[in-house]
Amino acid sequence: MCLLVALLIAPAMGAAREHLQVFVTEPYLELHTGAGRGYPVFTVVPRGESVDVLFRRTDWFKVRTERGVEGWAAQKDMQQVVLANGAPFTFPLGDRAGYTSHRWEMGMFAGDYGGATLVSGYSSFYFNSQLAAELSLGQFLGKFSNGTTGDLGLTHIIAPEWRLTPFLMIGTGFVHISPKATLVQPAERTEQTAYVGGGVRYYLTRRFFLRAEYKAHEVFTHRNANEQVDEWKLGFAFFF
Amino acid sequence: METGIRVLLLTVACLALQGCVVRNWIHHRQEVRAEREAAKEEAASASQQDDIEAPPPRVVEPEVERRKITVPKIKSSNIELGLHYGALSVEDFGTNQVYGAFAAYHITEDFFFQGEYGRSTAGRTSFETLGGNIQLLTNAERRFTYYNLSLGYNFLPGEAFLGRGIAMPSAFYWLGGIGSTKFGGDDRFTVNFGAGYRVLPSDWIAVHITVQDRVFKSDLLGVSKLTNNIEARVGASIFF
Asked: What predicted TM-score, i.e. pTM, was given to this entire model?
């Protein structure tokens, strides 16, 4: 008898739910067979019923209905559901507001590093909408030398709410240069660098933006004079 | 007799004094009462003014406490890590097996960002085979290593059916990007493009078939030319 009572009470308590339960407030919530706009709707959840949110992939949520049916709900439909206490279900969106303020971004570039072709990628972590710590790694492939370069620094977005906005950068890094074997001085070397730079970024759509930048590197060599290297690059990036 | 008169006079005096005291006391009480009445009236008039501004008294005290919902973090599953194995045709150097790893970040339902790394060992050119003991490259230089960063576009999303009961989400996708190839003792800037087919037997597992061309400039055979290095591979990956 006690066991029966416990079994009856347990689902009502709801304290130990593994997944978030949300309630449908629109006339119905459509569930698709796949995480994409073209996948057919195979079931609907009527108003007042709930679904468990299992996980999210891109802009789609995998949910499970009270009857145990699993399907994919679109982000725009999930903005209409509410939590058990009536509060709206909120989550980060990949839109213009997300472009203005986000935590992470990643991107890839093609460009020029002191005359050599450059391939590079970067990742940023934003402390607030304007200030980010940025790590970038690149490989340059030139006629006379190849090498790798890495930078760690700070980026300041001047007006994050603008679609086209300038930014400034400052930081330090390294460059590893391996001269091509055909030249007389084959000694590879790794030097510390410091850089200042600036650029612009332009919001395209959804989570994407373009980014173009220039960095002036000061290479601290072991020789008498330091070297200056200009880095120009253009790429695309996304935030999340 | 004298004593009797004195007692009488004293008694009269006492009574007279007592009478005065009582009268004074009564008078005092009347004043206090009047003050209290005045104070009460003032308070009453003040409270009437307050009542006009104050909210009406609660009729029903709510007994239900608002439920506190702790919103669990919705798990995001956008990252895909996988291994691949296939055949790589290195221009002029024959076809050999290739193996490697890849990582993808799915940004939207349409686009993903992918990084790939692979290794192969090139064979002998026809010239070497026919010429006997001629060796164009050392064994170390025959190692073909590449990496690249690509943008992918899910061109034809759909479903693959296995019998009557199983439907698996699938997509035909385009890939294009830049990277670097190490071959013949040199690193070369490489452009890649290709297409692939992905099918997901479960939400967490994907199987890929991909064909990709890696194009770079090579002067290994005396003249500088663009070489096409076509790779066909199968891959398996897990979503995180």
From this structure: 0.77
